[in-house]
Give the backbone structure.
Amino acid sequence: MKIKTLILAAVGGVVGLSGVAVTSPALADGEQFIPMLVYRTGPYAPSGIPVANGFRDYYKLVNARDGGVNGVKLSFEECETEYNTKLGVECYEKLKNKGAHGASLFNPFSTGITYQLIPKAPVDKIPILSMGYGRTAAADGRVFEWVFNFPTTYWSQASGFINYVAQQEGGLDKLKGMKIAHIYHNSAYGKEANPTLEVLAEKYGYDLTLLAVDHPGQEQKATWLQIRRLKPDWIFMSGWGVMNQVAVKEAAGIRYPMDHFVGNWWSGSDADVIPAGKGAIGYKSATFNAAGDGFQVHRDIVKYVYGGDAAEAKKNNLGEVLYNRAIVNAMFTVEAILTAQGKFGNKALGGEQVRWGLENLDLTEARLKELGLEGFTRPVKVSCADHETGGPIIIQQWDGSKWSMVSDWIPTMRDIVRPMIEKAAAAYAKENNITPRDCA
Amino acid sequence: MEILNAFFVAPFVDMGSDYIFFAEVVIAGVLTGVMYSLVALGFVLIFKASGVFNFSQGVMVLFAALTLVGLMEHGAPVWLALIGTVLVMIALAFAVEWVMLRRLVNQEEIVLFMSTIGLSFVLQGLGEMVWGSNVKALDIGIPSEPFEVGGILLNEFDLFAAASGAVLVGVLAVFFHYTRIGRALRAVADDHQAALSVGIPLRTIWIIVWSVAGMVGLVAGIMWGAKSGVQFSLSLIALKALPVLILGGFTSVPGAIVGGLIIGVGEKIAEIYWGPLFGGAIENWFAYVLALVFLLFRPQGLFGEKIIERV
């Protein structure tokens, strides 16, 4: 009886403790600590796993290939959020003071978690890099000193999509009278593109229909019946997780021309198209990084992280869209640390110093080439006032087995989006009694 | 006046003026409703036999689909993978009875309910550990080409799913009403102790019913998994079954199918004709509102058994 009780207690203890899913390696004083909020389990795990693997592999690569950042080794720790905002905030609290200098920065990889961390960042003096997600208004660095969302935002992306449609149709003047539908995840994230699309609809005269899909998006028949009746010329989608897979399948099911169906950059991963099989051929999505594993950085990862075992690297999602996106995000993180070291010295740095590095990041084409990332993504130059940089987007298309780029880099409409950002940031500043910085 | 028109006139004018589209909406609702019924059936089976609301039914759908697609990925042909999955679900039923149920005989229903919550976490973790968390395409050869009949777009897959659901409901209804085991199941559902006292083997009944619920979960997993790929989200489909159960009654197999049809058609009509007035995406909560309205008039659900307790 006692043995049985002991076993049950042990099992109970293990199960109980597993709720706090933090992997905790020993941290050395001289190491640069980077927390990782990951979601390897839960409904969004198919997206979260390649992202987590991409971050991990890039940090490992920097340590193995370069000996760290100017000799300062990177240490990192995963905390499981299940893409759940509450758990994400708990992970933030657990990890923010780890390491000799605390967390370097946070990459929440969730718009919901980012929204919760934005007010904490200036208090804890830890910057947030929400790369291409989160609160778009945070692009105004005068108000959001601690938040960065380069290389581009949802609003810029929506304007880039309209530019792409105009390119395909023969000019912006051809948009007049066209029917464009936006199918979006019914959440803060999904709604982000709506204001931009509405402003542009007024300016260019296209007819915009907004169709919300509730979480998780497993059942979308009503949405696609409306699409069938509306017969839009183009569809833009802001989806996530299972919503994307079902939408692609439903679009094929009503014989919608897939080359006129464009997802945003969170609706164009490998997992989004595979379940639809041949029906997904022709589906497009916006992106700001290349797909595939043909870059030098991938060869380096296979060599230094996987000891030459390409099959094992592939099993860990090497070259998949979201893996590559995490590579870009991790690279931005490391380059910001490197930039900060240029001012503060080659040592492990704290959040305030890394924030300076983010704000002064100037990633050139030449530097991307040195990193084995030539043609992988675009150069970025951040400034005090501009935490977004309004970078261009590119369109990729699924051919049944892989994603391929099918456009040039498409500029976003800075002249329209930036004033919207400044207006939204000013409203946030007023609501929260923030006095904007002088970036002149 | 404009609001009244938008709510009470315009939607009906729209239905009448484009009646072919309206027919397509109704048919889509019926076909979706059958898919909801497939999930709801698993809940009904276990509730009928043990009075327990099986919180883990959604995860059982996921677990069955994961096992099937996992076996297929390891090279098993479809028929062998199907047999293998059925055997796994039967083994699961034995394990549930041995580890969980037999220790909780005659406990409060809430205790049994809590244990099924625990089971859902165990199954979810086990499924992810064995088969991984990536989205897996599921193709067992069910045709899925769209085609038009009189301007109404139909899909071979939806019709196949509806036919499968109808056959399953028919078989289960006959099983419960006209077989000895079916009668024994109902006796156990009414009173564990009374059933035991007349010689009904409680444990055997539980194994049978959990096995059948597992197989129903497999059918639901195949149909839903083929639409979205097999992934964790499949377990959340249980949320769609709840209003069906509230409406149809927790103890009625025909109730599950009728409830599914009402919810399926109701939510599609509401989303398309009234959804824009609320900003869209109303079908999830509308299904619950619809079920609650029915509850006002029939608290036991459309086909549920009326509970009369005398003091």
Q: What stands out?
A: Chain A touches chain B through 35 residues (CB under 8 Å). Chain A has two domains: 23-152+292-393+420-431, 154-287. Confidence is low (pLDDT under 50) at residues 1-26 of chain A.
